[in-house]
Model the fold of this input.
Amino acid sequence: MIGLQQYLLLATILFAVGIYGVLSKRNAVAVLMSVELMLNSVNLNFVAINRYVVTDQAVGQLFALMVIVVAAAEVAVGLALIISIFRQRKSVNLNDFNLLKW
Amino acid sequence: MPWILLSVEITLALLGLVLLVLGLVMPDRGRRLMQPVAVVALLGILIMGGGLYTTQYNMFNGNYQIDPFGSFFKLLFLAAGILVILSAGRYLERFQERINEFYSFMIIALLGMVVMASAGELITLYIGLELMTVSFYILTAYLLNDKLSAEAGLKYLILGAMSSAILLFGISLVYAVTGTTVIAEMAAQFSMQPVMIAGIILILAGFGFKISLVPFHMWAPDIYQGAPIPVTAFLAVGSKAAAFAAMARVMVIAFPVSTFDWPLLLAVLAAITIVVGNLIALVQTNVKRLLAYSSIAQAGYILVGLAAYNGFGLKGVLFYAMLYVFSNMGAFATATVVEVETGSTDIEAFNGLARRSPMVAAIMTVCMLSLAGIPPLAGFVGKFYLFAGAIQSDLLWLAFVGLVMSMISVYYYLRVAKAMYIGSNDNATAINPGKTAGAALWVCLAGTLLFGLYPAPLSNLAQVAIQLFL
Done:
């Protein structure tokens, strides 16, 4: 029987995978994908909670829709930034972006 | 539904769009019109917001709150926006033909902050937060040919997106327990469970990132240094205050202190933030970076008020956030003048500024001393409220940490003053900051002195605003 617990567990695992990707990936596009994974795990959480805990209102599903919209905007800006920095440095490897430290 | 109560938000949205279109339709004439139009319109909105100050109303079933607390922060953001646009003046010439969109991005970021301060519900809060943050991603990377700016933009994007995902995960856990996203209804459904604690801590981490609390502060110095100075200034005063407004509303209203002692958690975070921010600032050689660490420390001071969680402390939060706008903007406006003139913000660039432009150097010194909390300037009064609140709540150790670190902070603020007054510079030509930047500097000086010598009016405004929480 698949219930709330399984969904929350899956979402938490996805979230952890996302954080791992953000912290360990060196390719800027892959990092953006990991962030998307984190946001999608949140969506899964919202929809599952809405389905199993608060069934009389659709607030959780609404929240998930909003998150999807905002994530799309964020990725649009993110890819634009990556393209602009790629034109400048001919690289999307985060290890090369080390001018700012301390 | 009295739509007039939303006039600040609606006119801000219109202004952002009108400026965007104005730049497209009249590329050349529009560019000259842009600054005066933006400043005059924002002043108008500021007056409008002032008129609505004491109004209290639940919009959209409590999803959007019009109340003095939100209005106080609206005035703060508008004042910050006006000062940033005035002080940016000649710096913006670097953006060339993209100068038009700059204003609309600024206004839209401002709209996001306003929505955050008034949001009575977490979806609305999230939309406001992202409206502000996404605009800031673009603004941070606005100097397209500058390597530091592009790098700062990318870093801010990655870390900002990650922090909002963490905030959202926290919100989803809290939603699981309370079954609602309306902040005012959460307290009734509050129950102490492990999942709730996890949710609160993730939410704190999400807000802590925006406020740049230690240990979520690592992004701040890089982004503050890389971004164009007007954007840095707006990020330091506006974005931070907006996150404080949202955090105060969520923490105080949704999570009852009687069941979960979050003020203690905040007190520890505040102490670490004050210590780390001030100590690292001591060794900085770039003024933008120094101001970044100083702003981390200032965030710690403001958090002391929230951790104290009483009348004095909460009043201190609002009072300090407002005076911080004027003092910090004064410092950033001076740094803008120096960067336009010398092309650098290293401390050496400030050498001999007192001879090249005595007025600018004096204002910078006054603002920095206010940030350090020297009486009779505004910073002293603000810190007095904050630490008095902490002592009232038996957080004597926190007030002690704050006091000691304030004294230490005088050292790095005076290092800049020393460069300006004692440092020697071969180039002794006079610096003229320009009319608009000059006006911004005078306003900052006036605000810093006025709130220090005669704090009663602002203190009363803050008192009205916190009635909601007491």
Q: What stands out?
A: The CA atoms of residues 263 and 307 of chain B lie 4 Å apart.
